[in-house]
Amino acid sequence: MLLLAASAWAGDNVKHYTLDPVHTRVMFTVEHAGYSNAIGTVSGSTGSLRFDPDDWSSAQLQVRVPMQRVDMGDEKWNRATQARNLLDTEAFPEATFISTAIEPIDPQHASVTGMLTLHGISREIVMQVKLNALKRYPLPPFRRTVGFSASTTISRADFGIDAWSSLIGDRVDLRIEAEAQASRGPAGAAEDSMGAPAKADAAGGDEAAADDTGHDTETVP
Q1: Which of 13-22, 55-64, 133-142, 185-194 comes out lowest in average pLDDT?
Q2: What residues make up the domain containing 170?
Q3: Where is the composition biased (Low complexity) (predicted)?
Q4: Does residue 155 sit within a domain?
């Protein structure tokens, strides 16, 4: 597993978060023979984030993306995309991203530079990131949750994915929607300091049952 580099964290607002694989998704678009822009998604990403909303420059992020979960909306197309001459997910089942520098733009936006490893090749990329929200999740156990949107553009040829150049465009636009929840760690390093509501609002007046991820165990919105 990838490890975050050790770092000294100043201030009480620094928290350690764990990516929520259910509510984190990578979307990509690529030209399909000039007719349209094909859309694919990857669900199930995992990773860790250290983040202080008052000091974006101190943040660190590491993400693992399960490439065998690429979904083009059609089983035959999924198999073709994951085949040896394209993503080759049997040989390279994961893509990873590790941040190396973060440049704040304003309280809600930043440019995040890092190393993307895809198809066994590592390249530096820059993502434009927006902080959507940082607050308690509205279901038990009301854990602090942070949400981001991010975007960037890469060349698939830069990562050795150059087959079918007459049919598939080289430019790949990436969009990431991510949620991460405050982690529980030693000495309360990632514990939430916000006050929890007394009880949850639930249909019929009953408090919703929830698992440790903060989701209703019967329905997961």
Answers
A1: 185-194
A2: 15-200
A3: 195-207
A4: yes
